[in-house]
Each structure stands twice: as C-alpha cells, then as structure tokens.
Amino acid sequence: MRRMLIISALAFFAGVILLPNALLEASPLAPDPNGCNTGTIQDVQAAIPGKPTIEELGAVVGHNKISINIVWALVAGFLVMFMQPGFAMVETGLTRAKNAAHTMAMNFLVYPLGMLSFYVCGFALMFGGLGAISTMGGYAGLNHEFTINLFGKPFGLFGTKGFFLSGSSYDVAVFALFLFQMVFMDTTATIPTGALAERWKFLAFCIYACFVGTIIYPIFGNWVWGGGWLAMLGQNFHLGHGHADFAGSSVVHMCGGVIALVGAWIIGPRLGKFNKDGSANAIPGHNIPMAVIGTFILAFGWFGFNAGSTLAGTDLRIAVVAVNTMLASAAGAVAATIWMWIVRTKKPDPSMMCNGMLAGLVAITAPCAFVNSISACVIGLIAGILVVESVYFIEGKLKLDDPVGAISVHGVNGAWGCLALGIFADGSYGDGWNGVAGTVKGLLYGDPSQFAAQCIGITANFIYVGLISLIVFKLIDVVIGHRPDPMAEIEGLDIPEMGVVGYNGIKMDKHSETPISI
User: Fold this and answer.
1) Which of 484, 517, 512, 497 has the alpha carbon at shortest distance from 286?
2) How far apart are CA 338 and CA 341, in angstroms?
3) Using CA atoms, how far apart are residues 196 and 212, in angstroms rounded to an integer?
4) Other residues' Cβ atoms within 10 Å of the Cβ of residue 74
5) Three-state SS for 304?
6) Residues 449, 238: contact at Cβ < 8 Å?
7) Which of 122, 201, 285, 473 could form an S-S bond across to 94 if both were Cys, CB 3.0 to 4.6 Å?
C-alpha cells in the first residue's frame, strides 16, 4: 500500500512538472521572454495578411507616430496634473495651521471649477481658431478665429469653435490637446490662491476660479498659442517669430502672477501684517517640510510641463528641454540660498530655497527648448536672485501681502523667462515657429527683433490680464465681498469658512498662532 502511494505521488509531481513543457512544445506559439519576436509583419493590418503593401506599411508608420505623440502629450498632462498637490502643499506649508483646511480646499476645488469652465467655453476661446494640430495628425477642425484688421494686418483675438468639445471638436487630437491645456490653465488659476491665502472668502474664490477658466486665461492664451495676434507679430511685422513662449512663462505663470498682484492689491493684507508706520511683521508658515516636499513634487511635474509642450514624443528635443529645466531649477535654488545667506538674512532660508527653485523653473519655461545648457544655468541663477529681491520689494515698497511669494515667483520670473528667450535663444531649434522660416534666435545671436516681440508680449499680458482681473475682482467685491469676518480671520478660516479644522486634536496658541499638541 505504501509503495502504491509513493508511486502515485511521484507520478503526480512528474505530471505537474512535465505536462506544461509538453504542452508548450506542442503549441505553435512559443514564449518570447526577450520580446524580439513580439510584433511582426503579421500584426500589420493588410488586405493580404502577412503581405502588406508600401501604402499599408506607411499608414501603420504614420498611425504609430501620431499615437506616440498623443500618448506622450497625455502622459505629460498627467504629470502636470500631479503638480496640483505640489501647489497645495507649498501654499499650505507656508501659511498658518489655523487656515490649513481653507488653503487646501482652494487648491483642491480650483481644479474641478477651472476644468468645467475651460470645458464650457475657455478651450474654444483659446484654441477655436488654431488650425491644424500638426503633431497630432494635422486635424484642422478648430479653424474659426475672430479677427479684426489693423494697419492692414489681421489681428486674431479669440477662437469661436470647440464649445463643450462638441461637433467638429469630437476628435482624438482635440481631446488630447484639451487635457494637456486644461492642466496648464489650472496652474494659472492656482497661483493666486497662494498670494491671497488666509483672508479670502471661499465663495469669492469659487467665482474667481470660474472667471479664470472661461475668459481671463483663454484670451491671452489665444494670442500666443492659439494663432492670435501676438503669435503673428513675426509674419505681420517681421518681429522675430512673434511672441514665443514654449511652455508658458507668460501664458501660464505671468498670467497667474499678474492676477495675484491685482488680487492682493484689491483684497488687502492679512490682519496684523503691517504696522501703522508701514513696517511689515513676519508671519511664518507652519510646516516647512510640507512646503519642501511640495516643491519637489512641482519640480517633478515640471518635466511634463516643459518637455510635454513639444506635444510630440517623436521630437527628441525633449531631452534638451528636460535637462535645461533641471539645470535652471538647480541654479535658481542655489542662487536664492546664497543670496539670502550672504546678502539678506545671513541664514539659508528654506522657504526661499524653495522659491528659488520654483523661480528657476518658471523662468526656463519659455526658453527651455531654444537655449543651451549654459544659458539655462544663467537664466536660473538670475531668477534665484530676482525672486528674493522681488519679495522684499513687493512687501517693503509696494506694501502688498503675498504669503507664499507667488507674485515674485510666477509674475516677475514669468516676465524674466520671456525676456530671457529674446536674449539667449541660440538658433538651434524652432524652424517654422509661428509660421516664420528659420530657427529662433535671440539678441545675443543676431535677432534683436525677437527681443522686441518678447517685450510686446509681456506688456500685453500686464495690460490685458491686469485690467480684466481688476474688473473681475471689483465685480466680486461689489456683489459678495472678498474678506470674511475679521474675527474669523483672527480665529482661523477653517471652521467659519469650511466647517472643519485642518488639524484635529490640537489647539492654537493665540499669541503665536501656531499649533500646540493636546
């Protein structure tokens, strides 16, 4: 009996081991662990399987190229979307614990509010007259730009197709472009939440978020990226390649910085920020580690922001863009650290380290594809010093309260990034940019007209975004007001505005307004 059991057991285990191999050898589909034989001519769709014609092969190659570009744009958009928690952590960490839930909530809700607003009409106003989306198959269904004629030249002002992504907008290329551009708009909308933190009524913020997605951001975006008049300065007036902004120093960051500037002026400073003699009181953030982690998240997402703006995974310039982005961020962080350490406070302020890195990222966003690595470092270095001096100027001279330095990081360095393109573009990239033959060159490489186009774009941004933001903020102020009750500001906005505290299980030290464990 025992012998029979042993023999049965051996037979069973032999079957377990040998049967799969026997089946595998009998199967016509052998495994391919190296992947060398996976994907063959049999996978090419053809009238005669396994014997595709040249035209059929060409169709597959073209389809795969566009597929790579669309997937690249979508993945890059996913990275940019991940920047949203980075902004939330930076802004919340650099403000006080009693407003943590309120600041986080603004950073959260600006995403869905801005998205739906952009979906309804913002995308159409920005890209409704774009024409062919060349990197995504050449689809040209967005072809209605509202223009006026000045000086005998057409001036594009806004698009008129693409509302609700319906009709001729129901196309894979348009949908991919929408996702990528929507998260850019979200970045613009988020920037002012840091500058206006700790004293902004939540309902007023919600209304503002809808205005940004529908009209403030899209109109200027059309002028630069949607085929509008700033993009046409090269064709119409021979000013370089028109106002060039590869990934958004002006379209995204300067827009957000100018909105923040106007908002901070209209809403006023936090209670206790300035003394009667005009001197400023420091109001430290409650969680520097949170701000540092948020900065790293933003730097990571910025690879999607800048390199993704090729809208083409087949454009190998993405390597140059990504490295320039890294180098400028590093130079900005180091420059701000040293400047604070030696010139300003004699201490290497961690919050300014973060702002220095972000300033370098903002500044390189416009020129990242057009400059070499040395120029990228110079641009970041200047940005790091510029952000420090700008923070002191805005608070000390303009008497504006910006809790996180958003005006300096995004507004000032957004402008600097556009100027830097007009100075340092080295002519190694950009042939045909904005319909102008030849590569993009800056002042140092023989084309002062490109610098002029950059200056015009910056001026137009400040005037248009400043005026429309002033109207929006004034309108909201008249209808519902921006400021919550003063006692709510003193106690913290979490309970009065949000109904929950950001940190449960702590009480606030009313003198220092910092959390105490209980």
Assistant:
1) 512
2) 5
3) 15
4) 14
5) helix
6) yes
7) 285
Pick left, alpha or beta for residue 44 (phi over 0 → left; psi -120 to 50 → alpha; otherwise beta): beta
Q: Is the separation of the CB atoms in 239 and 456 below 8 Å?
A: yes
Please state, as a whole number, how many other Cβ atoms lie within 10 Å of the Cβ of residue 518.
6
Cα 312-307-64 angle, rounded to 5 deg:
20
Could you give the CA distance from residue 31 to residue 224 in angstroms, rounded to a whole number?
Answer: 52
Delimit the domains of the chain by residue range: 59-498
One-letter identity of residue 479: V
pLDDT, one tens digit per residue, over 458-511 is: 999 999 999 999 999 999 999 999 999 999 999 999 999 999 999 987 766 554
Superfamily of domain 59-498: Ammonium transporter AmtB like domains (1.10.3430.10)
Q: Which of 246, 175, 260 is nearest to 216 (CA)?
A: 260
Q: Are 502 and 108 in contact (CB under 8 A)?
A: no
Nearest to 204 by CA among 404, 484, 401, 407: 484
Q: Report angle CA 344, 348, 349 to the nearest 5 degrees.
A: 85
The answer for 493, left when phi > 0, alpha when psi is -120 to 50, beta otherwise, is: alpha
DSSP, collapsed to helix, strand or coil, labels residue 101 as: helix
pTM recorded for the entire structure: 0.92
Which tokens is 430 given?
A: 């950009």
Q: Tell me the pLDDT tens digit for each residue of 66-110.
A: 999 999 999 999 999 999 999 999 999 999 999 999 999 999 999
Summarised one tens digit per residue, pLDDT across range 266-279 is 999 999 999 999 99
Percent of the chain with pLDDT over 70: 92
Tell me: the pLDDT tens digits for 337-359?
Answer: 999 999 999 999 999 999 999 99
